[in-house]
Amino acid sequence: MIRYLFCTVMLCLLTADAWATHSGGSIQLGVFAYRPVDIMVRRYQPLTDYLSKKTGLEVRLHIYDQAEMESAITHNRVDFFLTNPSHFLVVRNEKSLSGVLATLIRQQGEGSTMSLGGVILVRKEQEGINTLADIGKRTVLAPGPHYLGGYQTQALELLDAGVDLSRRGKVVYVGGHDSVVEGLLARDGEVGFVRTGILEELSWDRPGLAGRFRVVNRQNLRGYPFVASTRLYPEWPLVSLPHVELDVVRSVASALFSLNSDHPAARAAGLAGFAPPADYQSVENLARRLRLPPYDKVPEFTWGEAVYQYRYWVAVIALLMTALAVAVAWLGQQHRKLRKQETQLVSMAHYDALTGLPNRTLLTDRLRQAMAGIDRQGGRLALAFIDLDQFKPVNDRFGHEAGDQLLVEISRRMRGELREQDTLARLGGDEFVALMINVQGDRGLDGLLHRLLNAVSAPVVLQSGEVRVSASIGVALYPQQGSLDGDQLIRQADQAMYRAKQSGKNRYALFR
User: Fold this and answer.
1) Which residues pair with residue 508 across a beta bridge?
2) Residue 57 has pLDDT above 80, yes or no
């Protein structure tokens, strides 16, 4: 009887703990403390106030270290949490989650990014450390082993360079990115690991700080606003827990996707806003390579043990495999021929034969998917209809072969100015369409369109001589008031293109 009463009381307490999360209409937001708590509060309290105002619910901010965050999640003391991708993988492995709600976008000056990486710092006067291989016997300062940008990204780059940090005893974990920088200045270590953006953030308050360090293995990442020493991975996810009501999740998601880079809450946090969830497969691959949680468990039953225990069955299977080898080889050859033919047919159906760009069919499909994604999760896209000016005189004067060379070169240039997630398609002749998704602001769009105009108008050297063309671009934005489909959006951009051409060419015009 006493045991029954004890169990009943404990169940009531646990239920009350979970229910208290939403008592009084309050929402609990947990944020991982990758910098000192006072700085995190100063940066993320305005975002919390913004969410309270937009959702009509009281949103409370909690800054946690990793252990505190995991405890809060386990006991349902938070409804949403924002953390680094590696920590998210660990939590997802241990507790059921509703999935990633959004991925944050960092802002730096006029640039923004959904990616993070690692930075390897040494003091400017430090000698003998110029490459990854030079770090092998040095004392390294890092925030902690669970920091994606503060340890794991650098560890993978070093592993690929032949330096295994897990087998050497000279990594000192100092608890935070700020402590790494201060430790380097105090000569507590020779090498420091921090995530991208930290050096820039610290330099805001301490001008000249960046000049006291050198960046090892510096990457040349076009368009990326921060210095980096490693490859890039998706930015922090914002995650909702399963106990949160669906209406609350939708309300918070709507508020996040409505946040613009010029809002005071975004500026305080150094954000350009939030985007639909990124693909975190690359972070999983990193954790597997480095044997990090949740992929750090060594299997108890190895392949060698399996082969020995079932060695007779293995021998029988090997004989059967050998007997079937000839038949399988022949079938495989036939299959490869069919696949090659299928690949050629698919390429012909979806890509332009001359430029290799997507054709109208593939463009229509990608445009439909992008518009559907915006309808579900918010955001904005721009569709640019591009028509080359003075192309026909070049074609008539130098011949069709020269015209084809010109189209190929112009296509290559325009594709190089667009982002990886954008699509450049050729409709036919000298007409192209650029589909640009996750367009954050008018200034960024204006810069992108001018880069396209400059790419087209630059001289092109052909076998027949140097030629110049320009482009007239019409732009239509989505979403708009009222419903419309992809074909209507293309027609809008086409109309705007003719207006640009009539206004003098070599310019762009927005559909009004």
Assistant:
1) 473
2) yes
The first and second tokens of residue 9, run together, are: 């009381």
- pLDDT attached to residue 309: 75
* Phi, psi dihedrals of residue 62, rounded to the nearest 5°: -130, 125
Q: How far is CA 3 from CA 8, 10, 11, 508, in A?
A: 9, 11, 12, 77
- Cβ contacts of residue 40 below 8 Å, gap of 6+? 31, 33, 34, 63
Cis amide bond preceding 294, omega within 30: yes
Whole-model pTM? 0.56
Return mean pLDDT, the chain: 90
Q: Which residues have a Cβ under 8 Å from the Cβ of 223 and sit 6 or more positions away?
A: 111, 419
Q: Which of 72-81, 171-180, 296-305, 425-434 has the lowest mean pLDDT?
A: 296-305
Q: How confident is the model over 231-248, as a mean pLDDT?
A: 96
Contact 405, 463 (CB under 8 A): yes
**Predicted confidence band of residue 232 (pLDDT cuts 50, 70, 90):** very high
Identify the H or E element spanning 159. Answer: helix 153-160
Could you give the angle at the alpha carbon of 502 between the alpha carbons of 500 and 505, nearest 5°? 55
What is 360-510's CATH superfamily?
Answer: Reverse transcriptase/Diguanylate cyclase domain (3.30.70.270)
Q: How far is CA 260 from the centre of its chain?
A: 18
Sequence-ordered list of residues with C-beta below 8 angstroms from that of 27, at least 6 positions apart, any chain: 51, 55, 57, 58, 59, 60, 79, 80, 244, 248, 252
Superfamily holding 26-110+237-275: Periplasmic binding protein-like II (3.40.190.10)
What is the per-residue pLDDT for 302? 65
Confidence of residue 169 (pLDDT cuts 50, 70, 90): low
460: three-class secondary structure by DSSP: strand
**What string of DSSP letters covers 360-404?**
HHHHHHHHHHHHHHHHHH---EEEEEEEEESHHHHHHHH-HHHHH
Other C-beta atoms lying within 10 Å of the C-beta of residue 117? 24
Q: What is the mean pLDDT of residues 105-120?
A: 94
3.40.50.11740, 3.30.565.10, 3.40.190.10, 3.40.630.180: which CATH number matches 115-232? 3.40.190.10
